[in-house]
Amino acid sequence: MRATPGPIDRFLADLHARLSGLTGGAPATYIPELGKADPALFGIAVAMVDGTLYTAGDAAHRFTIQSISKAFVYGHALDRLGREAVLRHVGVEPTGESFNSISLDEAHNRPFNPMVNAGAIATAELIEGDDPIARQAALAALMERYAGRRLDLDETVYHSEKATGHRNRAIAWMMLNSGMIKRAPEEVLDLYFRQCSLLVDARDLATMGATIANDGINPRTGARALAREHVPDVLTVMNMCGMYNYAGQWSYEIGLPAKSGVSGAILLVIPGQAGIAIYSPPIDANGNSVRGVAAAGEIADAFGLHIF
Ligand code: DON
Questions:
Q1: Which pLDDT value is given to residue 149?
Q2: Does ligand 1 lie within 6 Å of residue 154's CB atom?
Q3: How high is the ipTM of this complex?
Q4: Which pLDDT tens digit goes with each residue over 152-183?
């Protein structure tokens, strides 16, 4: 927070204080380690494209990025291979189904979109590099360009998901069977589990969103993380598919491209203006943070952010 709190600081502090009392939902438990999160944690960060950062609550508390990573890895695939090639691997159709649904677009021999697990596993296979170590390095470098700093891996969450992620294994093996992925499923999954287990705090995540908002350039470091021509592709897919089977109602009410993760974070992008990150572990039946959805609604209303 700046030395003298301004109206945005005061708005966020008030919002945080009011919504701290909001109950409902529970931390995800299907990845056992995530179930240990403190349900009271609640942080908000807003990163503007001019580099200004506003925070409230537990904005410095680190958590695993989980599904929010899917948006950045999708952008990397587009930058690396171009739109047409990526469309051969993954579509852009909303599913209206849960994030881990075992459904594939068999008519086009590809997952429906890069925000559901099937699509994200297909996209993880597209990360640049000649071998697993090179691909891990490319992933780390990508996320570092967005966040403006090196991100650590949460080894405990990574191992917890790797030990229990059999549904994702089922999806990956099905995709191997239909030729949607080519490499060994366990290797592709390892990279996917790693990308989901990177540690960020709300300030990092807001900066990552501000980077997309800023035409792909990190406003704090000046580094380009995403080609300008692919920013609309990433935002469109976030807008349609980022909140899973809540995506339609989210777009109707809040009207901003967003991506949620089962650790309890939501990233919103205000194109051309800012990234907003909200973290609070209790999630609802759709896998979206309860306080996150409530806070996003209030922020969008208060500042008239609905893009339509
Ligand atoms: O694949 C999984 O189940 C997790 N690593 C990520 C899921 C996730 O964050 C979905 N978001 N709501």
A1: 97
A2: no
A3: 0.97
A4: 999 999 999 999 999 999 999 999 999 999 99
- Is 70 designated active site? yes
Two tokens, residue 64: 């695993």
Q: How far is CA 209 from the centre of its chain?
A: 9
Ranges of each domain in the chain: 7-66+199-302, 69-196
Please give the pLDDT value at position 277. 98
Report whether pLDDT(105) > 90.
yes
CATH topology of domain 69-196: Beta-lactamase (3.40.710)
Beta bridge partners of 289: 283
How confident is the model over 253-275, as pLDDT tens digits?
999 999 999 999 999 999 999 99
Going from the Cα of 3 to the center of ligand 1, the distance in angstroms, rounded, reads: 38
CA of 88 to the centre of ligand 1 (A): 23
Q: Is the CB of 198 under 6 A from ligand 1?
A: no
Contacts (Cβ under 8 Å, ≥6 apart) of 107: none
Give the active site residue among 46, 49, 67, 200.
Answer: 67
- Is 117 known to sit in a ligand binding site? yes
The residue to mutate among 31, 33, 66, having the most atoms of ligand 1 within 8 angstroms of its beta carbon, is 66
pTM of the model: 0.97
67 is catalytic: yes
To which residue do tokens 């966040």 refer? 147
Q: Do domains 7-66+199-302 and 69-196 have the same CATH topology?
A: yes
Query: What is the 8-class DSSP label of residue 135?
Result: H
7-66+199-302: CATH topology: Beta-lactamase (3.40.710)
Residue 289 has what DSSP assignment?
B
d(CA 158, CA 274): 30
Catalytic annotation present for 262: yes
